[in-house]
Design a protein that fits this description.
Blueprint (H helix, E strand, L loop, with lengths): L14 E5 L1 E2 L8 E2 L1 E5 L5 E6 L8 E5 L5 E5 L2 E5 L18 E6 L5 E5 L2 E2 L6 H4 L15 E2 L2 E4 L5 E5 L15 E4 L5 E5 L5 E6 L4 E8 L14 E3 L5 E4 L3 E5 L5 E6 L5 E6 L5 E6 L4 E6 L5 E6 L9 E6 L3
Antiparallel strand pairs: 1-4, 1-27, 2-3, 4-5, 6-7, 7-8, 9-10, 10-13, 11-12, 13-14, 15-16, 16-17, 17-18, 19-20, 20-21, 21-22, 23-24, 24-25, 25-26
């Protein structure tokens, strides 16, 4: 595949997907980092080959200035909206396996650390993959599973020592996180764990779980995966093959079955009516009406398992 950067200046409604091309025969999660651009008509417009990291480009998110953030291994990536090109990598961020970002009104950023393990676990699920995890320089571990606050100039302000939930792989921390519109706490998940957790970033304290799912079997699929707040305080979550809408108390306002399993990322659309939900196993994106659950449009990237790599979705609001 020829590596030509064809990403165009961003237009309102453009959709961006993290789609690394997996071409490393020795590592089934590694390859050439790539972000693909689609128009609001869901048709492909261009692509950008990224620098920094060797695995999935994921956790795509726009900040308040329209700068696109993404993550790969221990690198934080930034893509300029006016040029469609990646900015130089910054050395201001602690080298961590970040996977999610939230921004407050003052421009502070909260980064969730995907990894939490001393080393690659020796369990049956971990043995199914040939991934070679990056190690934090000097620390010799994969990650701590914390949330990190940086100011608008990207200086580290605070490390929040968040709790995480048990899950099958044994190496995941804060895989998905979203700042509540009131900006006092972050709701987050350990992917395929049974806790929908909250952390108070004003008072630096763990809060009671918003939801704790029943059962002791962590492989029973009674779990939560992705989380994303809407501006009105409703929380969207995925639970494998369903999209749920929760109120402020964690009650289910709507539960919408999706066609397949593996919905692992959520983006709120600028129209306030729809969301985008990405499926890593199928390589598809569904545009869903939040109030009715109707799937009104979609994208099929062609990157289906075993070439699964769809690890982030973001919409440019303008």
């Amino acid at each position: 595949m020829a590596k030509e950067n064809s990403m165009q200046p961003f237009e309102p409604g453009d959709i961006f997907l993290g789609l690394t091309v997996l071409n490393n025969p020795d590592d089934d999660h590694a390859g050439d980092g790539r972000i693909v651009q689609y128009g609001k008509d869901m048709q492909q417009k261009g692509e950008l080959w990224t620098e920094g990291g060797e695995h999935f480009v994921g956790g795509l998110e726009f900040d308040g200035n329209g700068l696109l953030w993404a993550f790969n291994d221990l690198s934080v990536l930034h893509v300029d909206a006016q040029t469609g090109r990646q900015r130089p990598l910054s050395d201001k961020f602690l080298p961590r396996g970040y996977r999610s970002a939230s921004f407050d009104a003052e421009g502070n950023v909260y980064l969730g650390e995907h990894m939490k393990a001393e080393k690659k676990p020796d369990n049956e699920i971990a043995k199914r993959t040939t991934i070679k995890f990056p190690v934090i320089p000097g620390d010799g571990v994969l990650g701590y599973g914390f949330i990190y606050k940086y100011d608008p100039d990207w200086n580290l302000v605070k490390v929040f020592e968040t709790e995480t939930a048990p899950e099958m792989t044994g190496f995941k921390g804060v895989t998905h996180s979203s700042l509540h519109p009131g900006e006092q706490f972050i709701t987050y998940a350990t992917e395929t764990g049974k806790r929908l957790m909250r952390y108070d970033v004003i008072n630096d304290e763990q809060l009671p779980d918003l939801v704790t799912y029943p059962g002791d079997n962590i492989a029973d699929k009674v779990w939560v995966i992705a989380v994303k707040y809407m501006p009105d305080g409703r929380l969207l979550i995925t639970r494998g093959d369903t999209l749920e809408v929760l109120d402020e108390q964690g009650n289910v306002l709507g539960s919408y079955p999706l066609e397949t399993y593996g919905w692992s990322d959520i983006e709120i659309c600028g129209d306030g009516v729809h969301c985008l939900v990405a499926n890593i196993w199928e390589g598809t994106v569904a545009k869903v009406n939040v109030d009715s659950g109707e799937i009104v449009d979609g994208i099929d990237t062609g990157m289906k398992a075993p070439n699964r790599c769809l690890a982030g979705v973001a919409e440019f609001k303008g």
